[in-house]
Amino acid sequence: MNKLNVGDLDFExxxxxxxxxxxxxxxxGKQLGARVTGTSIYELPPGQAICPYHYEYAEEEWLIxxxxxxxxxxxxxxxxLRPWDVCVFVAGPDGAHGVRNExxxxxxxxxxxxVKWPAATVYPxxxxxxxxxxxxxxxxxFPRSAAVEYFHGEPGTGR
Length: 159
Prior knowledge:
mainly beta, globular, four-stranded antiparallel β-sheet, Jelly Rolls
């Protein structure tokens, strides 16, 4: 049996994350042998968020508050969560969410989801879409206004 104590983790921080999005993260689904699901624990210092407000098209996500009182933004508004609150974010626009720490204490949350490739994520506040393939070289994030029609640039189409 593979196991991990989630109370005893070393969080990884990405130095390139901008202020406001400097959350520590520890992914451990693969480490435990998971094949179709993923789990991460995020550590949010005061004033930081996990990631921009978004929704997924391929994945349903779950959130469990482990420590602190994060603010959850959803389509229908915002609310302060507390330890052991559990939320689910369905795939599609109804599952839009953002998690941030507006307190003076550290917040820790666990997120669990199925992992599907390819995946598309929409960021409504910045009107972007991300396409994630499972291959870093083929991933792309772009403004939705950059969309082209289906045959754009195809040889012989004149488009």
